[in-house]
Specification:
The protein is an alpha/beta fold. Helices cover 41% and strands 20% of the residues. The protein has 16 helices and 18 strands. It has helices at residues 3-12, 14-23, 44-54, 70-81, 94-103, 113-124, 137-143, 212-220, 239-259, 275-285, 296-305, 315-329, 354-371, 377-383, 390-399, 425-433, and strands spanning 27-31, 35-40, 66-67, 87-91, 106-111, 129-131, 149-152, 155-158, 170-176, 181-184, 187-190, 195-200, 225-230, 264-268, 291-295, 333-337, 341-346, 407-412. The strands form four sheets. Strands 6-1-13-14-15-16-17-18 form an eight-stranded mixed beta sheet, with helices on both faces. A hairpin with a 3-residue loop joins strand 16 (333-337) and strand 17. The protein is globular, with a radius of gyration of 21 Å.
């Protein structure tokens, strides 16, 4: 298959898609969380100095892990790094945040899947309606000028008009490069791949407050929702809170789908701090959503938790895992995004071009990985010069020889052995995937 031609074809249609989308009344909707990310610049020497001073024993991670001290930080983060893993851990002591900010150079960026997704889409040229939890001026400024609207007592307003005087919610993010040198008890290790750790000092997202005005607006204007992307519950650790949230949203989504059967609800998973909460999200929201999005690590962890060992590098094993999730939760389809490919697995829907969404999701995420920010239309075009992932192509070829229970569409990603940026790539992919619904 000529993937280069597929990328070029969908890329060239973006301007006409934007024009048609803006002329219509229907909009993409994103919810629910946002924060101010504190980006920690990687410094090999400083990190190893932290390990030498604070690492007690061997790297390790326990169940229901938290970071309450620099020794916790050293033990947990080194464990993830030597495996090339990314993850999300709660910080319970602000002194850890202050210490990291003193030790490393930092920068600020936007956090939250819906905030990043809507901003990435707006940077290309597609406006949207969003619900964000952190509406501080710092966060709102990062999303301003892109046609993004929020809901207030007066209905839809530009995002900067909905800004509050509240302080921003901060998440500490450490991105480490491939082959980072990690000295553990005088033994040298190398990070096998580039990845990132998210460390939240955040009490807001333990319960994710959702504005009732936003829910009421969506229900009243359901016919004008093209598709609805939801996410943001991964920091909830109390199953009772998650149950209440899931029950509330199940009713909300049903009202929207009853009023507008063409509106698909896309739910993006994440690395959950409490896996029991993760299970509850899947089980209680499965009947209320249409599409479930996740990356390969989340697929492996979820299936292993339910007794199925999945090899993310084996196409047969991946399909078996997707079959397991499809049959367990009975969703319309699953969107699997990885560094080498993106796949839609499930049922077709009239008027929805999943290959388009996979392609533009890969392109937008690849652009962010290449230049370190959300890409404009022109910058996404420059990413077309990047090679297509050989691993993704091999996976696609193997898939052609596997008999699947559901439709399987796969698009290899743009290949970068040393990405400039690995933060928010999944969130940016979600933005591009939402173009599946624009025609």
């Amino acid at each position: 298959m000529d993937y280069q031609a597929i990328y070029h074809d969908y890329y060239q249609k973006i301007p006409s898609d934007i024009k048609a989308y803006k002329q219509g009344n229907r909009r993409l909707v994103f919810g629910y969380t946002s924060d101010l990310d504190v980006l920690i610049s990687w410094d090999n020497e400083t990190f190893n100095r932290v390990l030498a001073e604070h690492l007690e024993g061997e790297p390790a991670v326990k169940k229901f892990e938290i970071i309450d001290s620099m020794s916790d930080f050293a033990r947990i983060v080194s464990y993830y790094m030597i495996r090339g893993w990314g993850g999300e851990i709660e910080i319970t002591n602000n002194l850890v945040c202050e210490t990291l900010e003193d030790l490393f150079d930092i920068d600020f960026a936007l956090g939250g899947t819906c905030a990043q997704g809507s901003t990435a889409l707006g940077t290309v040229g597609f406006p949207s309606v969003v619900h964000i939890t952190d509406r501080s001026k710092e966060v709102s400024r990062l999303m301003d000028g892109l046609g993004i609207e929020v809901i207030s007592n007066n209905g839809k307003v530009p995002i900067i008009e909905g800004a509050t005087q509240d302080l921003p919610v901060r998440h500490m993010i450490l991105q480490y490069p491939k082959n980072a040198k990690i000295v553990i008890n005088q033994n040298l290790h190398f990070a096998p791949v580039s990845n990132r750790m998210i460390m939240d000092y955040d009490k807001v997202h333990k319960h994710v407050p959702i504005d009732p005005d936003f829910l009421a607006y969506c229900e009243k204007n359901a016919e004008n929702i093209l598709a609805y992307s939801s996410s943001g519950f991964n920091a909830i650790v109390d199953p009772i809170i998650m149950k209440e949230k899931a029950d509330q949203l199940s009713v909300h989504y049903k009202k929207i789908r009853d009023a507008n059967p063409d509106c698909l609800i896309y739910f993006e998973s994440a690395h959950y701090m409490n896996q029991d909460v993760n299970d509850m999200v899947f089980e209680r929201l499965a009947n209320a959503i249409d599409l479930l999005g996740l990356n390969e690590e989340e697929l492996v962890h979820h299936t292993q938790r339910h007794g199925l060992d999945t090899d993310k590098d084996d196409p047969v094993s991946v399909i078996e895992a997707l079959d397991f999730v499809m049959e367990k939760y009975e969703v319309t389809g699953i969107v699997l995004h990885t560094k080498d490919y993106a796949m839609y697995y499930g049922h077709d829907r009239p008027g929805v071009d999943f290959i388009k969404g996979l392609t533009l999701g890969n392109l937008m995420a690849g652009t962010r990985a290449r230049i370190g920010k959300y890409g404009t239309y022109e910058e996404c075009g420059e990413t077309l010069a990047q090679l297509i992932s050989p691993t993704g192509v091999a996976f696609a070829e193997a898939l052609e020889h596997i008999e699947t229970k559901f439709n399987a569409y796969l698009v290899p990603s743009r290949y970068m052995s040393q990405p400039t940026f690995t933060i928010g790539l999944g969130d940016t992919f979600v933005a591009g995937f939402m173009t599946s619904f624009i025609n």
